[in-house]
Structure formats: structure tokens, C-alpha cells
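REVIEWER CHECKLIST
Item 1: Sequence provided? yes
Item 2: Single chain? yes
Item 3: Sequence as submitted:
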Amino acid sequence: MPTPWTGAGDIPCPVTGTVHFRDDFGEARSGHAHEGIDIFAARGRPNVAVVGGTMTHRFDAAGGNTIWLTDKNGHRYVYLHLQGFAGPPRTVTAGEVIGFTGDSGNAVGTHTHFEIRPSGGAPINPYGTLLKACPNRN
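Item 4: Structure as written out by the authors:
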């Protein structure tokens, strides 16, 4: 049975420095609903692990360079459209640099698409979590 997601608690902002985002979760995107929040920042801006866990990555046509970060309870935090990865797949700690903001895949503009996927469940809106985690937003 999946462990219920009870919130990420105090997490770092997934993208370092000044960022811009709005609540675009659920908006129509290329025939599907948007399953995350687009965090706009300068190209190459470091992206950090929001929790400790196992980091894997891959490339696909839609998401481009994508990172899947899975915590000890099986909850996943997903970063899409990255310029590149910071090292190989591995175990990481919260705050560790794992990738860099970009526009790979089908991205429109330079940003990191960020998702929260509770263990065994559908993506949830990370907007409220990001408001708390990212004080340097405009």
C-alpha cells in the first residue's frame, strides 16, 4: 500500500536564485492537462533536489532532459526540460545540484517544469508548496 503524501514540509526551491511562476497546473497542453508548475529562470540555473532520495534521468521528445527524484516513501518529484544533468543517476541529499534549467523537449521558453507525484497516485498541484519554498520570486 502506498505511503500517503502529507506534504514535502520545508523544502528548498527546486530552482536556485530568482524565479517566476504562476499556478498553471491543470491547464490544457498539447492534448493533455498540465501536470506541474513551470518555473521560469535563466538558462543554466542550478536545479536542486527538494528531498533526499534516488535520482534517475532520461531524455524523451516531450519532456526533454528529465529527472525523476524518488524519496524513501516512493513519492516522486519530477523536473523536465532541463539543459542538462549534474552527474550520473545516484542517491542525492536535499539541496544537492542535480540539473540545470533549459528548454529541451517541447518546452516553450527557458524553464523547469516541476511535478509532485505521491506514491501510487496522480500528480498533485505543487503551487502552494512552491510559494513557501521559493521566496526569491517575482
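Item 5: Key structural point noted by reviewer: Residues 127-133 form the longest helix (7 residues).
Item 6: Recommendation: ____
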